[in-house]
Design brief:
CATH architecture of the largest domain: 2-Layer Sandwich
Number of helices: 9
Structural class: alpha+beta
Strand order of the largest sheet: 2-3-4-5
Shape: elongated
CATH class of the largest domain: Alpha Beta
Radius of gyration: 31 Å
CATH topology of the largest domain: Nucleotidyltransferase, domain 5
Oligomer: single chain
Order of helices and strands: HHHHHHEEEEHHEHE
Number of strands: 6
Bound molecules: zinc ion
């Protein structure tokens, strides 16, 4: 024989009734929704979780999920107290216990947010939880450096729209004055960004090893063979190659330039003049 719900004595007990539909549970979810000023969909446990994770404040999401778990656990505890101890827990005592437990869990929430609203502040303060703010970003100056006299510098990059998605690679060669020598861009089909980046680097090495097979007219005196060591530069210092990779992706063609394409003139000039770009790091 199916047992009757020990919290309302009106319906058959099953997990959906006990945790979601029982008057005891719905009263708790209604308090939850008012307390955090959020719309709570209590049609299933998954939809409850989704309602909590949708919040824009990451710190509050952790607190909401902690409160959700404590509420479910309190419903189970109250049901057992009634069955095994014949002890009814009034709603206000259950709410106080949930708030106390959430406050303890919330105090160790590590997530931070730079977008706290006044409502977030009031909610977190009422649970005695301190606000975690994002730390000020570390600012890194990124400068593209010309290679040593007699050396040629190649910069390459790859990009993909999706993983995998349409992708492209690109790169360019510059001399010790930062002057343009040649550039390439390729469409690399449906691939990941990592594939496109490696493709760009390998294509640059292939051109450096044998420029004559790629360029119809190689200016006399240029040898790209000095290309022999590899370093890494932040995206902020690699805009020319980034633009070329994007050109490959969008044009869906493979191209090689022996005169500078218009869309990288500005960035090339900035690089040649050692003008800085800035990278903002949030940690
Ligand atoms: Zn019930």
């Amino acid at each position: 024989m199916a047992s009757v719900c020990s919290l309302c004595f009106k319906h058959t007990e099953n997990s959906n009734h006990l945790f979601l539909n029982c008057i005891y549970a719905t009263s708790l979810w209604s308090w939850f929704s008012n307390f955090f000023s959020i719309t709570l969909d209590n049609s299933s446990v998954i939809s409850l979780l989704r309602s909590c994770s949708n919040h824009s404040n990451k710190q509050l999401v952790q607190v909401l999920i902690a409160c959700l778990v404590h509420t479910l656990s309190k419903i189970w505890f109250c049901r057992n107290q009634k069955i095994f101890e014949n002890d009814s827990t009034p709603l206000h005592l259950a709410i106080n216990a949930i708030k106390r437990d959430t406050s303890l869990s919330g105090a160790s929430a590590k997530a931070s947010s730079s977008a706290h609203t006044v409502q977030d502040l009031i909610t977190l303060r009422s649970l005695d939880i301190a606000l975690n703010f994002n730390r000020a970003p570390v600012i890194i100056e990124v400068i593209w450096r010309t290679p040593r006299v007699g050396w040629v510098k190649a910069n390459s990059d790859g990009t993909a729209h999706g993983s995998p998605g349409h992708s492209g690679s690109g790169g360019l060669f510059r001399d010790h004055k930062g002057s343009f020598m040649l550039a390439f861009s390729n469409y690399t089909n449906i691939q990941s960004a990592l594939f496109a980046e490696l493709h760009g680097a390998m294509h640059a090495v292939a051109i450096a090893a044998n420029p004559a097979s790629f360029v119809v007219e190689v200016q006399e005196g240029y040898s790209l063979l000095q290309f022999s060591y590899i370093t890494y530069i932040y995206r902020e210092g690699n805009q020319c190659a980034d633009r070329l990779a994007n050109h490959g992706l969008h044009s869906r063609t493979n191209l090689i330039w022996s005169t500078i394409p218009n869309f990288i003139v500005n960035d090339c000039n900035r690089n040649a003049l050692s003008l800085p770009n800035y990278r903002f790091k949030n940690d």
